Task: inverse folding
């Protein structure tokens, strides 16, 4: 597509539920990144992929968070047993290798 | 570890006035430095980046930034503010000088432009 598409734009979930956030990168972009942005803060790195391989997951806060990109295109960030502290804007970006990012508009997750 | 400090969470200027948004970084290696802008309900958009070439970097929408190694700074400027510049601005540093895959962002500066 023309840009990085994230869905849903807004997600409200109850504490303890699992959520899946989707990112559809720009066609042909090899690298895909996930960031999390809390209110009043800058984005914080979560994980990144080159093609289907997860290259770095050092930013995932705990084992409730996981991400996959099985065919090297669309990626899903899954949060299991959500907690209120997981509420944030989740941002996806994609790029060519060693090139500038293009960010999506994000998914606003609210855990109630 | 890399870190970024943006001085001033909120900057307010008059239309036509100079815009100066401050960014200082810490890095143990020559850094790659970036400025991103975020308009309401949109994704972050790259304004400009420094990658060890010219120290004065020109970006989109009339913005520029100067890398000053001695001051570990990368301040963003624009000579004359426009109403459309109102947005949140983020400075970021790469964790790896050989790649920009992992960025450390500052907390952001909200720019307000008054008529």
Result:
């Amino acid at each position: 597509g023309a840009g990085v598409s994230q869905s849903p734009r807004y997600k409200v979930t109850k504490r303890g539920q699992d959520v899946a956030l989707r990112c559809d990168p720009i066609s042909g972009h090899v690298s895909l990144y996930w960031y999390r942005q809390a209110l009043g803060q800058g984005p914080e790195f979560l994980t990144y992929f080159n093609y289907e391989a997860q290259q770095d997951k050092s930013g995932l806060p705990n084992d409730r968070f996981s991400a996959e990109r099985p065919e090297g295109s669309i990626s899903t960030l899954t949060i299991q047993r959500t907690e209120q502290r997981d509420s944030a804007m989740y941002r996806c970006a994609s790029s060519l290798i060693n090139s500038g990012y293009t960010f999506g508009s994000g998914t606003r997750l609210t855990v109630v | 570890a890399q870190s970024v400090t943006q001085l001033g969470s909120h900057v307010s200027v008059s239309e036509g006035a100079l815009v100066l948004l401050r960014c200082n970084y810490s890095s143990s290696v020559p850094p790659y430095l970036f400025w991103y802008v975020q308009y309401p309900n949109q994704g972050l958009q790259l304004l400009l980046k420094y990658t060890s070439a010219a120290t004065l970097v020109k970006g989109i929408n009339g913005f520029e930034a100067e890398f000053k190694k001695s001051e570990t700074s990368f301040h963003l400027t624009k000579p004359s503010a426009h109403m459309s510049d109102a947005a949140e601005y983020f400075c970021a540093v790469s964790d790896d000088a050989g790649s920009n895959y992992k960025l450390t962002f500052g907390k952001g500066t909200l720019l307000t432009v008054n008529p």
Observations:
- The mean pLDDT of chain B is 90.
- Chain B touches chain A at residues 4, 9, 34, 36, 41-46, 49, 90, 92, 98-108 (CB under 8 Å).
- The radius of gyration of chain B is 13 Å.
- The CA atoms of residues 73 and 96 of chain B lie 18 Å apart.
